[in-house]
Each structure stands twice: as structure tokens, then as C-alpha cells.
Amino acid sequence: MLSELSGLVRTNLAVTNQLLTTIRKDQWAELTGIVATIDRAVDQAREIESVPTSLWEDVAGSGALVQKQLELYRENVRDHVGQIGRADARTHRGYLQTNAEAIAFDVHALLSSLNAWTGYHALRASRARAAGRDDAAEAHYAEVIARDTRAEFDSALAETTSLVDALTRELRITAELRGPDAWPLLGMRKDVKAVREASARLLEVIEPLADTLHPPTPPIEAPGVVCAPGSLDPEPYLRILRWLFEDGEALRVLGFPDQLDTLDPISAIVGGAMGKLAAAMDKDTAKTLVAVTDRRIITARTDAFLEQAEIRQDIPLDQVRYVRATTAQDRSSRSAIDLITRDENIRWLFHADIDNTHVDALAAVLGESMTIPDAERDELRRRRHASIEAGGKSESAGTGSTEPTGSEATT
Questions:
Q1: CATH 2.30.29.30 in the chain, residues?
Q2: Whose C-alpha in 111, 150, 237, 252 is 20 to 30 A from the C-alpha of 323?
Q3: Where are the alpha helices (DSSP H) in 21-61?
């Protein structure tokens, strides 16, 4: 465990040492003091293959302090991930710009404190093991320490990996977002440029560590079926999707249908005006991104995706109920796909320039997932029977109320 962690710490420290020594000097001094003390004790114990009393006394009082450091920096990194992962792009950008150095510090401090924590408990277990030669209880206690340390180490390293993964993913996505020249206002361009530069600096610090903890997802290649106008380049979308995919997730088809307006009449007027304004600034704004993987369907507005990596829908494939490739009932006769999921009905209209065979291929890939779970089918049957029974009772009640009484009949 110590060899594994020490290698990770060296990987990160080689890049971050100069940066870390310029910020949070007091915290850094406290942490490095604890880490150095425990590292030195571990090295000496390895050299003499023992943990004598005088060596143990040098670190015996460090347990609570090491635990405190570990919890402090674990919580700090959790906070960073939560802040950066917010949907509000302005908050996201501002946080990165003002906290870049603190993020780098906390990531390294988390790993360093975990290293020190593991070393402390290794010494503690060795000490108990030595005492166990003459005391069975001490020998058993050494086994308990080793067992608990291994379990807590695995848990802490897994959480550290998850936190660093999440942090690095957000930074990588930010670095891939559309360049500042594409933003309409000068102030916005400066803002975007600053956050991209901050993300790039942080990636230089954190990426080597992140890649060691968890090998990165390989680049995504364009699938065999891409339903897009000939002028649209899918590469910027693929670079962002790379960091949104889960391990082993495969892209099967990519589509760029026109945005379908499903708003109410008043909202449609406002939305249409906004759409025309946006289209004047970006030819791709009136499009929807549809990425179908072997696990889910991701949809997004292309402008929001390229500028903020914002996803509109994330639909698991097991929620697909029905798919149909059809033709729009208007003068354009454009290809369309109707998708019915467990919760909603979706229609995508495709530009006339897109090959119909590609649209059919997209529908075919979606169609492979069509299914109705037995529970939903049984529920539909139950509702049908309940409706029939309710209708029969209503008819019976209605008939009884209109029958003439005896005196009325004779009259």
C-alpha cells in the first residue's frame, strides 16, 4: 500500500511542488511536517526491519492529527467537485478562476495525507506484531489493525480516485468547450478565455495523478452512422462526449436533427424570436445533438453543449418503448423519427440534406431497444379491465335509472 501511494505522491509532487509552496504556507508546512515525520519513521523501520520503542514514540501521537488532515482535505476536494459540477456556467467559471491554486493544493494534500495515514497504521501494526511474539492478544490485535487498515485504505483510495476523476473530468470538459471567439460579447469572451486558461493550468497539475489513478477514456471516433448536414463537423462534440462517457461505453450513432418546437403558442412566439437571433450568431444553434450509445440516449442543444457541455436528456435504453422512421407532414417532406419512451413522446426532424438511409439507420439502432416490461404491460391490462368493468357498471346503473315504474308503464 505504501509503495503504491508513495509513487502517486511523487507523480503529483513533481509537477506541483513549486505551486504548492507559494500558497497556504501554514497548512502546507503542517502537512509536510507530519508526512515527513511518518515517512522517515517508515524508512527507518524498513531499514532495521523493526519498530523499536524509541522510533514508535516519535510518531505515536500523530494518529489523531493525521486522521484530521485526511478528513479535512477529503472534504475540501468534495467541495471543489460540487462547486465545479454546478449547472450555472457563470458560477462554474468564477469558481475556477478564483480557486485554481486551492484546488491543486487540496488534491495533492489529500493524497499526501492518505499516504501519511497509511504509513502511521503500518507502523502501528508492526509494533503490535512484535509485541505479539509474547502476547497472543497483541498478535491478534496486529491482524485486526492490518485488516482494518487495508479496508479503510481501499475505501479511501477509491473515493480519492472518484473525486479526482470527477474534478479532472470537469476540467477536461471545460478545456474542450467552444473557444472564446465564438461568444458574442467581448466581456464574455474574456471570461471564457480566463476560465479555459485556468482549466489548462490545473490539468497540467492534476492530470498526471488522475491518469495514474484511473487510465483516461480513449478518444471517441465518429461512428459509422452520422446523421448531419455535410457542413457540420462532429469532432468538437466527440471531444466533449469523451469525458461524459462511462468506462467501456461505446458510441453507436450520432444525429443532428433540427430542434422541434413543442412549446405552447405564446412561448413558441418568444422561443422562435430567440431562435432566429441565436441562429444569426451560430448556424448550429437550431440543431439538436442525439448521441446513442450501447447504454443510453443523450440529447442536447448543440449551442448549450458546445459552450457549457449541458445535456438536455439522458434516457436509458431500457426506457425505449417504440421507434418509427417517418416523413414530416409538411411541404418539406423531411425525414423524421418518432421516439416513445416510458415518460415522453419525442419527434426529431432532420434537414433535407441528410441522407434518408442514415436516418433509417439511426431509427434501426434505436429500434433494437424497443421493449415493454412485463410490469408495464400488466398495468395496461389491469387498466383496460378496470375500464371495462367501470363502463359495465355505469351502463347498468344508467339503464336502471331510466326504466319506467309500474304505474308509468300502465299509463
A1: 225-367
A2: 237
A3: 25-48, 53-59
